[in-house]
Amino acid sequence: MPVDEGSTRWLEPEEMHAWLSFIAGSALLESALDRQLQRESGMPHAYYQILAMLSDAPRRTLRMSDLAAATQSSQSRLSHAVSKLEGYGWVHRSQCPDDRRGTLATLTEQGMAVLREAAPGHVRAVREHLFDLLTREQVAQLTDIWQTVLAGMRDRDGVVATTRTVLGEAAG
Amino acid sequence: MPVDEGSTRWLEPEEMHAWLSFIAGSALLESALDRQLQRESGMPHAYYQILAMLSDAPRRTLRMSDLAAATQSSQSRLSHAVSKLEGYGWVHRSQCPDDRRGTLATLTEQGMAVLREAAPGHVRAVREHLFDLLTREQVAQLTDIWQTVLAGMRDRDGVVATTRTVLGEAAG
DNA sequence: CTCCAATAGTTGAACGTTCAAGCTCCACCG
DNA sequence: CGGTGGAGCTTGAACGTTCAACTATTGGAG
């Protein structure tokens, strides 16, 4: 229940325009990517990200909590997702040696193969809908903007969001 | 099923960094907004957007298809959502006079009241997580980037995405 | 005028996510 | 060393979205 009344700093026209542009653009972009992946590889973008992060990790293995942080998903969401991926045979769960509460998720050979199949189409879509439309400068600006937002999150919520390193071309 | 092999233009390091930053930042931002709205006003961000768009329309009324375009949602998604909102008494459906296939959605007084209650907290969250962290210049860059993306979508898919005008301070 | 493709909207089932609860195990304090 | 708070993960139900039908209506083309 909002308390405010009177003291609200509404968005200024330029901010409102920026906000509507971002909301609209990013929603359409995300749904385009989701549809492309669903159509050509039978998985949502979120699952692709899980596979991609795993593919880039040492031994293609990550602890559930690290994988959750790397994909910006809740533990619950990740747990459900990995169950599904495990059902497909794309990911394998095992017990964490040093911490018996822990679970390790490993990308299987089959999962790797699926990812390799999916990657080119996905990258093409990302290019087509985003990077091929932007200048080098805009790419740099995009990075700065979202790094700033991420830094803000970290300051607020205490350290989270361990945006993993490169991930390279997911299917190297 | 991807065809490619060999000819894929992978993302360059700067693009990869931009991509991961954007994906992570926007996901965390969106989920922060969703949680704030759910907690303080009992509705997801998508529903807020529907109410906001209606509040800004003449007679607080929009045709379903226009409302769908304005909120970047599929007709199906909107139809389900409006059913829910109608159940709460926040939106009212009526038949379109000029086109008997059409349906009009109108924001009720009660819906307007709920939106007015929700708006300050939502705007505060948007500021806190985004605009208060960015410079004026970055706000302008953000706008340009996403307008470019939207233009790309329109070129590709043929005209869609009628990003409505201002929407003002949703609760004027 | 009659057809017929296209447009507008809805519906139900399948899917993925959130939320709250629960379980196991670790860590640390006394 | 027993106890307790918290971390790590999972589960099931509720929720919102997608997908694929399906109905009803419109706007031409012949």
What is this entry, summarized?
The structure is a homodimer of 172-residue chains. With 172 residues, chain A is mainly α.
Walk me through what this model shows:
- 2 copies of one chain form a homodimer.
- Chain A is globular and about 55 Å long.
- Chain A has helices at 13-41, 45-55, 64-70, 75-88, 109-129, 136-157; strands at 61-63, 91-95, 103-107.
- The longest helix of chain A has 29 residues, at 13-41.
- In chain A, 60% of the residues lie in helices and 8% in strands.
- Chain A has a single domain, classed as Arc Repressor Mutant, subunit A (Orthogonal Bundle), CATH 1.10.10.10.
- Chain A is mainly alpha-helical and 172 residues long.
- Chain A has a 3-stranded antiparallel β-sheet with strand order 1-3-2.
- In chain A, α1 (13-41) crosses α5 (109-129), α2 (45-55) crosses α5 and α3 (64-70) packs across α4 (75-88).
- Chains A and B meet through α1, α5 and α6 of A and α1, α5 and α6 of B.
- Chain A binds a DNA duplex (30 and 30 nucleotides) through α1 and α4.
